[in-house]
Amino acid sequence: MISVRLANNISGKVVIITGASSGIGEATAKLLAERGARVVLGARREDKLERIATQIRDAGGEAVHQVLDVTVQDSNHAWT
């Protein structure tokens, strides 16, 4: 039931994902982009963020990225 709602309600929405350079964050970004969300990827490893954003765009999705570390307060201002 949740996946049906997600598929119907996510298209065109902007989703910010921290920890997007690997694991659950990466998988979530790809899934949401595949379902039509515009994703903003955040994590510490720029090379991995660039790779994932490129993969999403190559598959027809929309993705941008921003290097950040959520444990560093000044890094979090990048989103504003």
Describe the structure.
The protein is an alpha/beta fold and 80 residues long. 41% of the residues lie in helices and 21% in strands. The chain is built from three helices and three strands, in the order αβαβαβ. The protein has helices spanning 2-9, 23-34, 46-58; strands at residues 14-18, 38-43, 62-67. It has a three-stranded parallel beta sheet, covered by helices on one side. Helix 2 links the parallel strand 1 (14-18) and strand 2. The longest helix has 13 residues, at 46-58. The chain is globular. The protein starts with a helix and ends in a 13-residue tail after the last strand.
Topology:
Layout: H1 2-9, E1 14-18, H2 23-34, E2 38-43, H3 46-58, E3 62-67
Parallel strand pairs: 1-2, 2-3
Radius of gyration: 12 Å
How many H/I helices? 3
Biggest pleated-sheet summary: 3 strands, parallel
Mean pLDDT: 88
Strand arrangement in the largest pleated sheet? 1-2-3
Category from helices, strands and their pairing: alpha/beta
- Percent of residues in helices comes to 40-55%
Distance between the termini: 34 Å
Number of strands: 3
H and E string: HEHEHE
Instruction: Tell me the quaternary state.
Output: single chain
Kindly summarize this structure in a few lines.
This protein is of the alpha/beta class and 80 residues long. It contains three helices and three strands, in the order H-E-H-E-H-E.
